[in-house]
Specification:
The complex is a heterodimer. Chain A is built from 16 helices and 23 strands. By secondary structure, chain A is of the alpha/beta class. Chain A folds into two domains: 217 residues, P-loop containing nucleotide triphosphate hydrolases (Rossmann fold); 231 residues, 3-Layer(aba) Sandwich (Rossmann fold), CATH 3.40.50.300. In chain A, strands 5-4-6-7-3-8-9-10-11 form a nine-stranded mixed sheet, with helices on both faces. An eight-stranded mixed sheet of chain A has the order 16-15-17-18-14-19-20-21, sandwiched between helices. In chain A, helix 5 packs parallel to helix 7. The longest helix of chain A is centred in the first third of the chain and has 17 residues. Chain A is elongated, with a radius of gyration of 28 Å. In chain B, strand 1, helix 2 and strand 2 form a beta-alpha-beta unit. In chain B, helix 1 crosses helix 6 and helix 3 packs parallel to helix 4. Chain B has a five-stranded parallel sheet with strand order 2-1-3-4-5. Chain B has a single domain, classed as 3-Layer(aba) Sandwich (Rossmann fold), CATH 3.40.50. Chain B is α/β, with parallel strands linked by helices. Chain B contains six helices and five strands. The chains are: A alpha/beta, B alpha/beta. Chains A and B meet through helix 3, strand 5, helix 4 and helix 5 of A and helix 2 of B. Chain A: It holds the Pfam family ATPase.
Chain lengths: 483, 151
């Protein structure tokens, strides 16, 4: 087992996972980003978390901004605890010392102050000002080296905040043990915040970009799903046990229901019955099989109304807690934020049945769509490992096309079972069709059925018995080829 | 900034008292020591106090304030709470325990430690929470200096 360096938890949701356990104790980091990128909130959040565990923090500003202004801004965030000001976290300004006496005097002041306050975390806001005061790169190196040295002797971890984009060859970058970069970038018309660990000595941090948000509770980092769940969080233990899809006839066609812990993809154009099928699945929620609806389209109220028209009553299931409906309007979402929210809801209630309506909501949130295959693979593998029986929908854009194209590449890595729904035109009447293409490691009934919807819910009559070309949308009984 | 004196602010009674003081000051300038690590606050206090006819000394922390006190005893000390090396509470304790300085009135300007300071009325003549109104602090300075003179 390789030696693990002692860590300081940041307490920032997701960041400790990205850093694989937190900051390395007694080392120094640069947190860099443009003004407004979130450096101050992030570092104060770490400070309050550190102080909450009874340790001391020294927050030193080299900026002209007043501390009162800082406290006013922080007071809008839930982690801000005014009782810690001067009592766990000491906010001091070294601006005058820097301006009047220079870098050496700042080092001396901070060395004395770290010792006096017994601080184990030093945050120095305004590294750029120190750099401007320096006459040479050597001055910057000396300043950082001396501070690092004093801090390390005191067992104190250091965060240098700077608004400049510190170049990789800059003296600051070469001296510190880690660099965390925060960015707020524009994608088309929207913006998205991203965090990147650009350097981390002694730790295999999760490199690459990780999305984050600033919420009332502060910074929340969403580690890139395929990085944090490159391997599922626990070993997969597949079973042959089955659970009902909510439609008895479909269970029979699939060889006894859905395999527990399997994932099923239902594809079809708008109106073909995907959500209706999902509502039958949700209606089988029970205390033994907590159930979650994670949807982008219907609001919970509309979903309940739709269920009632099918003879399904979701209210008692919601009231008993057997069912939870999580609705995310498909607006400006963060892909990894959605995944972490979904997995949190699954883990929180030990969800065993999950209906995702639909995958398109995730695709819309992707700022970099080429990663979707890896993203869905990681999500599906984790759900399998958690033994969640998942049913997801994916809308097809062609309403009446003869061809049905797979909605995404590498579909077998994300789904065990595949069901296609489509409209067919028979005797100048529109009917819905259901066809099973795949049930992993199981025989299934390959017959093409009508998906009939009534106030009693779904039935699957054998309307197209003996017909050909049904999957193309035009079932013919006489077997003639289409002209 | 919210606590900055607005242009054209008036503080009638304060100015009246200040004028009286000014007459007294004809016999010698009254010196105020301002202690704060944040230069913006010391700058604003220095400007406002000098306009009222006071002579002002500044220090960026408690320890530097003590160095100044060794050389010269001011009529009053205005201090911040949270500062490097020695905070405002520690500074007040040292001042009050020294017989040469014990009679100096101390006004504390505090970000969030007002409650701690108010529980020690023997140390502080007045306590103001930041962001404070400069008129209020000036009034307190003038009153404390006058009271000190009278006693």
């Amino acid at each position: 087992m390789p030696h693990e360096l002692p860590r300081v938890e940041t307490g920032v949701e997701g960041l400790d996972a990205v850093l694989r356990g937190g900051l390395v104790a007694g080392t120094s980091y640069i947190i860099q980003g443009h003004p407004g990128a979130g450096k101050t909130i992030l570092s104060n959040q770490i400070a309050f978390h550190h102080a909450a565990s009874g340790q001391h923090v020294l927050y030193v500003t080299l900026l002209a901004e007043s501390h009162e202004r800082l406290f006013e801004n922080l007071s809008t965030l839930t982690f801000f605890d005014p009782s810690k000001l001067g009592n766990g976290i000491n906010y001091v300004s070294a601006f005058t010392t820097l301006r009047d006496e220079g870098l050496t005097a700042v080092v001396k002041l901070l060395r004395q102050e770290i010792g006096r306050t017994k601080s184990t975390l030093l945050i120095l806001d305004g590294l750029l000002n120190a750099r401007e005061k320096a006459e040479s790169n050597l001055d910057v190196k000396t300043f950082i080296a001396e501070l690092q040295g004093h801090a390390a002797f005191a067992g104190c971890t250091v965060l240098f905040l700077t608004s400049s984009r510190v170049d990789e060859s800059s003296p600051e970058h070469t001296m510190v043990d880690g660099v965390i970069q925060l960015k707020d970038e524009i994608f088309g018309v929207r913006s998205a915040r991203r965090l990147q660990v650009r350097k981390s000595r002694g730790v295999k941090a999760m490199h690459g970009y990780h999305q984050f948000e600033i919420l009332d509770r502060g910074v929340v980092v969403y580690p890139r799903l395929e990085a944090v769940l490159g391997q599922p969080s626990m070993p997969d233990s597949p079973t042959t046990a089955r659970t009902t899809s909510g439609v008895a006839e479909l269970d029979k066609m699939m060889g006894g229901g859905l395999q527990q812990g399997s994932s099923t993809l239902v594809i079809g154009a708008s109106g073909t019955g995907k959500t209706t099928l999902g509502l039958h699945f949700l209606a089988q929620a029970s205390p033994e099989e907590p159930t979650l609806h994670f949807g982008f389209y219907e609001t919970p109220e509309r979903l309940k109304l739709k269920a009632r028209t099918l003879g399904l009553d979701l209210d008692p299931l919601l009231a008993s807690g057997a069912l939870e409906i999580l609705w995310q309007p498909s607006t400006e979402n963060l892909l990894d934020g959605l995944a972490h929210k979904l997995l949190e809801a699954v883990r929180r209630r030990g969800v065993k049945r999950l209906f995702i309506d639909g995958f398109g909501g995730f695709e819309r949130a992707a700022l970099h769509p080429p990663r979707l295959v890896e993203f869905f693979t990681a999500l599906t593998n984790e759900l399998r490992a958690l033994n969640v029986t998942a049913v997801g929908t994916r809308e097809l854009t062609d309403l009446f096309s003869r061809q049905i194209l797979a909605p995404m590449p590498e579909i077998s890595s994300v789904t065990d079972n595949l069901i296609t729904l489509r409209f067919v035109d028979q005797h100048s009447r529109l009917r819905r069709l259901l066809s099973i293409q795949k049930v992993r490691d199981s025989a299934f009934d390959p017959s093409i059925r009508e998906l009939a919807i009534s106030s009693q819910g779904i039935s699957l009559p054998e309307t197209f018995e003996g017909a050909e070309h049904a999957l193309e949308g035009t079932p013919r009984l006489d077997g003639r080829t289409r002209s | 900034m919210r606590w900055k004196a607005r242009p054209g602010w008036t503080a009638g009674p304060v100015l009246e008292t200040a004028r009286c003081l000014k007459r007294e000051q004809d016999r010698g300038m009254t010196t105020i020591l301002v202690v704060d690590d944040e230069f913006l606050i010391t700058d604003i206090l220095v400007d406002a106090l000098e306009e009222e006819g006071f002579r002002v000394l500044t220090a960026s922390n408690g320890r530097k304030a003590l160095e100044l006190l060794d050389k010269e005893v001011p009529a009053l000390v205005v201090t911040d709470f949270m500062m490097p090396l020695m905070n405002g509470l520690e500074l007040a304790q040292v001042i009050k325990s020294n017989p040469d300085w014990a009679r100096i009135p101390i006004i504390l300007l505090s970000g969030a430690q007002g409650a701690i300071a108010r529980s020690r009325p023997e140390l502080f003549a007045a306590v103001y929470d930041k962001p404070f109104r400069i008129e209020n602090v000036l009034t307190a300075v003038v009153e404390a200096v006058s009271a000190q003179r009278r006693s």
